[in-house]
């Protein structure tokens, strides 16, 4: 039994027009976690939709967040929520799309570079550190000469949509594993592939 609080931020863009884009996979994962807790999101003054709950009976306190700013401005809402709920950077988990990871793969890391991801760059700036957890949900690289921005702002392909529920479920499992058993255990479980 633990009393620590975790902030899990699912990155994406607000509004129904972006809801099914590759760039919004982080919010899809947070929606899955919300479904597992049985709670509902509410608007918070930090420009985010949040859900407060627990991970299982007697599990850690959990703040699920969907910033309502655009991806490139994710830092303000995440940093404000961390401050408001007293969450240390080591208990902040950013769930995001990752083009350098193949579709249907989930990778986890703590700190390091942002790999050109503007949402992460803004979070690092707002938190004043790169030392926070990331659940990197693979969306694969753009085909041919397609611009990265165009690719991540498109919905998943018909074939990808068949496997998308499994990818979202795996990423949600990775978040839970991080909170329950820590980074090393999560690495062992999700980096074997």
Automatic annotation (TrEMBL):
The record marks 97 as: Stabilizes the basic form of H active site to accept a proton. It catalyses: an N-acyl-L-alpha-aminoacyl-tRNA + H2O = an N-acyl-L-amino acid + a tRNA + H(+). The record marks 13 as: Discriminates between blocked and unblocked aminoacyl-tRNA. Its EC number is 3.1.1.29. The active site is at 23 (proton acceptor). Keywords: Cytoplasm, Hydrolase, RNA-binding, tRNA-binding. It comes from the Bacteria. TRNA binds at residues 18, 70, 72, 118. Gene3D superfamilies: Peptidyl-tRNA hydrolase. GO terms for molecular function: hydrolase activity. It holds the Pfam family Pept_tRNA_hydro. Belongs to the PTH family. Monomer. This is Peptidyl-tRNA hydrolase. The gene is pth.
